[in-house]
Amino acid sequence: MYIHYSGVQVVFMFTERFIQYIKFEKRYSPHTVSAYQSDLDQFIGYLNNPDKKDPAPEPEITHPSQITHHLIRNWMVEMMSHDILARSINRKIATLRKYFKFLLQEGIITHNPASKITTPKIPKNLPVVVEDIKLTQMLDDDEIFPHDFKGTRDKLVVEALFGTGMRLAELMGVKESDINIYEGTVKVLGKRNKQRIIPINNELKHLVARYLELKKSEHFHNNSDSLIVTDKGTDAYPKLIYLIVQKYLSNISTQNKRSPHVLRHTFATSLLNRGADLNAIKELLGHANLSATQIYTHNSVERLKSIYKQAHPKA
Fold first, then answer.
1. Residues 232 and 265 in one domain
2. Pairwise CA distance, residues 177 & 168, whole Å
3. Do 112 and 156 lie in a common domain?
4. What is the C-alpha separation between 164 and 14, in angstroms, rounded?
5. Distance between CA 167 and CA 245 in Å, rounded?
6. At a CB cut-off of 8 Å and minimum separation 6, what does 46 contact?
7. Can you tell me the distance from the alpha carbon of 226 to that of 178, in angstroms, rounded to the nearest whole number?
8. Does 306 score more than 90 pLDDT?
9. CA-to-CA distance for 244 and 144, rounded, in angstroms?
C-alpha cells in the first residue's frame, strides 16, 4: 500500500500482511477485520494529510519503525478535536497496538510505539434496554408481525436476539444446521472464534421450525444455508437486521437507541432481574471476563432504587 507523507511517496506495505494474519490465522470475524482495516486506513489517511497539526513534524517515513508514539498521540488529539467519542478513539488506538505488536513479533520493528499511549477515559453509561414486558407482549401479539415469510423472518430476528442475547454478527453467522430443534439449542460462533451453545425457549423453537418451512417454500434461486436471509434468499446483511429491529422496537419504545444490541442488553438485564447467576449470564453472552457482565448489575441496582422510592414510606 502506498501513501503520501509530506508530498513524498513511501511504502506502507505491512498493513495488508497484518489484515491477512487476523483474517486467516486468527480467524477474526469479517466485521472485526473490517473494523481493523478501517482504523488502519484512517491512520494512514492522517499520515497522508499535509494539513495535519503536528508541532514536531516527523522525518520522512519509509518504514513502520519510524512511526513514533508522538505521531500516534497527535492523531489521537486530532480525533478528540473533532469530538470523536472516547470509545471509538480507544478502539482505534487498540488497533494500532495490535498492529505494531504483530510487526514486533515479525521482527519488522523493535518496539511498539502505541504501547506508550494513554487513551481517554470512557464514561460509564448504563446499557440501554427496553421494557421486557412490553417486548414480550409485542412478540405474543399475532397482529404485529405478518404471517408470510418476511414477517416470520422479522419476528425470528427480534425473538432470537432477545431470546438468546446473541450479537448481531453472531446471528448473521448462524446456519440452519446450527439449530437443534430437538435439544432446544443454537450453536454460536462468537468473538475470538469462540463457540458456545445457547438454549432456546419453546416459542423460539416453534418459530424457527415455521420459518424454515416458509423459507423452503419460497424456492429461492440463491438458496443460502444461513438462518437469516433477505427477501431474495441471500445472506442477511447488518443494515437489514438493524432496520428490522428499529422498525419493531419503535412500537414499544420512544428512545433514540433501538439497535440489535439493545435486545442483547435487555436479555441480560431480564435474566439478572429474575435472579439468574451472573456467571451463567456471562457464559450465555460469551463474555471473556466477568467485568464485562457486571455492568448489568448497575441496571439492576437502579431498578431496586426505583422500587424502594415507590414503596418505602421513608423514601
1. yes
2. 18
3. no
4. 39
5. 13
6. 52, 75, 78
7. 9
8. no
9. 13
Question: What are 14-72's pLDDT values in tens digits?
Answer: 898 999 999 999 989 888 999 999 999 899 888 877 565 455 555 566 788 888 999 99
127 in a domain, yes or no? no
Structural domain contains residue 122: no
Q: What is the pLDDT of residue 155?
A: 98
Single pTM value for the model: 0.67
CB 218 within 8 A of CB 233: yes
CA-CA distances (angstroms) from residue 277 to 37, 101, 130? 38, 37, 21
Q: Which range, of 24-38, 51-65, 124-138, 155-169, averages the lowest pLDDT?
A: 51-65
Is 188 found in the same domain as 306? yes
Residues marked active site are found at: 167, 191, 261, 264, 287, 296
Look up cell 518496539; give the residue. 111
**What is the structure's pLDDT at 1?**
43
pLDDT tens for each residue of 249-294: 999 998 888 999 999 999 999 999 898 999 999 999 999 889 888 8
C-alpha 83/C-alpha 221 separation (Å) is: 46
Per residue, the 3-state secondary structure of 178-227, as one string, reads: HEECCCCEEEEECHHHCEEEEECCHHHHHHHHHHHHHHHHCCCCCCCCEC
Residue 155: partners with Cβ closer than 8 Å, 6 or more residues away: 139, 144, 145, 207
Which pLDDT belongs to residue 58?
53
Residues of the domain holding 86: 2-116
CATH of the domain at 189: 1.10.443.10
